[in-house]
Amino acid sequence: MIDSCAAFWYDGRTSQRREVTVSLVECSLIVSGPDLERAYPLAEVRIDQRLGRVRRTLRFPDGASAETGADDFLDELLKTQGRGGFVGRLHRWEMSLGKAGAALLLTLAVVFCLVRYGVPLLAQRVAFALPAATEEAIGRETLQILDKVALQPSALPKERRLELERLFRAMVSQHPERRGWRLEFRASREIGANAFALPSGIVILTDRMVEIAENDHQLAGVLAHETGHVTHRHALRHLLQNSATALVVAGLTGDIVSVSSFAATMPAVIINAKYSRDFEREADAAAVEYLKGRGIPVRRYAEILARLDADHYKERDAVPRLGEMLGSHPLMLERVQNVLAAE
């Protein structure tokens, strides 16, 4: 066992340093040097833990201190004090390239699992735990913002809107969460053919979407898809998964800190939402289930998906880019194939 080391001594009153020897004698530390001899109970001395190759400090009860690079000696002192076990092992890991690499890989794996599984699970729990009044407030304020920045009044004939409203009411009439659900019509040159659902159950159908549909069976599939997003709280979960702070606060308190600030973020999420494959599959499954339950051929929904995709690329005068093919949002071809496979 190492019982002494060289160190630099500071008396705690001046900046002058002196070369000394620090020795362990029974349960005391003896500091000795030219014209200096002091003894301290080991239990009263504070010793820094290892940090890389940084020189460590012994702090004495009278305000004096000593610096040394004699890590092994200080580790022995810590063990004698009963404080050296875990930190010493941690330092050995730190100084071992292989072990440090393993620790890094373990950390990355934990972070990946947290982001891939933990965050979505917490977002789902929070989204389903929000009070109905909070969801309604978010939906109402989100629609108000959308009307200011992206949507215009619908130009569809009143009779046509009434027909589609009847279709929607019949669709949701048996749904246990239908309170507050309603269909809204809007025009938007920027958004084009589209339909999207707000957290409160407000489903927005654009004029262009109605125009490209060949029949109401196709639109029924679209509306059923959007009610699937509402049922599974996809908009809320998508936003929460991308808002770590809001997710943590909501998870701890059971409420959204500020409905207004939350609603202010929602329009961008709704318009630009690229839901995960799982979200889209869940919503598509809701559309398929509804159509099958009404004896409507499932291919009607596949047809409107294909027409929607063609209309979007026609407007952009482009073909799918590689980034879109590899992105988290499934290609329309994949969705169409999945729908047809369920027929």
TrEMBL record:
Ranges for domain DUF7092: 5-80
Organism from which the protein derives: Citrifermentans bemidjiense (strain ATCC BAA-1014 / DSM 16622 / JCM 12645 / Bem)
InterPro entries: DUF7092 (IPR055518), Mito/Outer_Membr_Metalloprot (IPR051156), Peptidase_M48 (IPR001915)
GO molecular function: metal ion binding; metalloendopeptidase activity
Keyword annotations from UniProtKB, A to Z: Hydrolase, Membrane, Metal-binding, Metalloprotease, Protease, Transmembrane, Transmembrane helix, Zinc
Domain Peptidase M48: 174-340
Transmembrane segments: 100-119
Pfam families membership: DUF7092 (PF23368), Peptidase_M48 (PF01435)
Cofactors: Zn(2+)
GO cellular component: membrane
Cofactor note: Binds 1 zinc ion per subunit.
Superkingdom of the source species: Bacteria
Name of the protein in its database record: Peptidase, M48 family
Family: Belongs to the peptidase M48 family.
Lineage per the UniProt record: Bacteria, Pseudomonadati, Thermodesulfobacteriota, Desulfuromonadia, Geobacterales
Keyword Heme assigned: no
GO annotation terms (biological process): proteolysis involved in protein catabolic process
